[in-house]
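Good morning,

Both structures are done.
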Amino acid sequence: MGLLQEALENIKPLDAGAMKAAAERQDQLTKPAGSLGVLEEISIKLAGITGSVMNEVDMKTIVVMAGDHGVTDEGVSAFPKEVTPQMVMNFVHGGAAINVLARHAGARVVVVDIGVDAQIDNPHVLSMKVKNGTDNFAKGPAMTRDEAIRALEVGIEIAYKEIDSGVKLLATGDMGIGNTTPSSAILLALTGRPVDGLVGRGTGIGNGDLDHKRKVITDAIDMLHPDKNDPIDVLAKVGGLEIAGLAGLIIGAASRRVPVIIDGFISSAAALMAGRISPQSIDYMIASHVSVEPGHRLILEELGLNPMLHMDMRLGEGTGAALAMTLVEAATKIIKEMATFAEAGVSDRELKID
């Protein structure tokens, strides 16, 4: 049995009993019922994921998958693909936004070369390269089915490695010039949504380039005919290696009953892919924020996930997920550290919601 299939078979429903116990404890805490809103919802969801009412997320990791895209040859990005390895080294040196926000959240950043079109020899970059970037999907499939599965399994392997080291909370991050194009193509191919309301400007392309980007995507889908009922076929034909790796990370986390925070548009395309491969995996996802990239909101709607933050962000890297980590940790502390009415000697009849 392959690693992917094994992981999929291990993904189970949330623990309803633990969620009920967590909800009951929330109602016993010294506050009006429901008054902490999403913080309460997160603590209940975590109970369902882990099977325990009390949870700690003191060990947190943001996995940044990096890969290049052959479709950048079509002029769909404002930046050249040479920026991808340059940014990978910026992550290593701690100078990127994700490094700053990860330090703020007390999280470790793991940088993975799953498909950068350059040789990166650095001990602080995890080399798991499937190939040197995807092929140009305007000319043919982005990768073979075997390569797509291998990239998914890279993500599963990394999830397992992190969890085995004691990590209790994972988050997704990405780096890959041009990767809003395959993310948009995945959304269009899997949902049949209209292209005009789906494809955004990515790194900041102009109106003419945006029209061209939309045409590249629609023409590729018309040519390749990705099968929406076979998500791995969609991934292979119009996807990206870092997107596949992040989808695998989500599947791996779900198979080990560990929550995973989803970042922005690219990460959410990976989440949509994971959700189509294993609908049960959606229960293990926590949406961090909603990006200004138009497709992001649509993906969250498809997944039925509500973002915690509305910050007008569109950087990726895992930045929104890093911010959300602090809120998830806060939720675990509320249910664990806050006094109950009985403990505090407070009558619950005296507290009412305004």
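Second structure follows.
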Amino acid sequence: MEKVVLVTPNDEVLGQMEKLQAHQNGLLHRAFSVFLFNAEGEMLLQKRAHEKYHSPNQWTNACCSHPRLDESYLEAAKRRIKEELGIDCELTEKFHFIYKADVGDGLWEHELDYVFTGDFSGSFNLNSDEVSEIRYISIEDLQKEIAENPNDFTEWFKIIWAEYRNKLS
């Protein structure tokens, strides 16, 4: 049973809770998001596997998940890109912020989210339990797709992408 780390807005640990229960109750927990770019400056998107209990078959950033109690945000991000995408790459922390998003079916993402970026142009070994497909997309085309087909993308990705563009552009 996977657990998340519950925290205060100042990242003080309150305890742990089973992931689904935390999402049902909308409780603030630690998370991270990874944006990967290729040599052409295109962003990697992953399509969440059909079997995911929320937001299945939706496009999102390269990787997002939750650190374990005993690992840093960076360690967790590197662990999960290996587990989901089958890759290793250097990551750089860009910023962190808190958001809350209704992801449907009575579930909420309420996260203290650390955002990392990295560059990767190699090959992938996808974990089909997590990811059904991947693709690189130009920033211009991504903006257009989000505007034209917002329901094709996870709620948190739209929020984090807007925050990223606001802070770093």
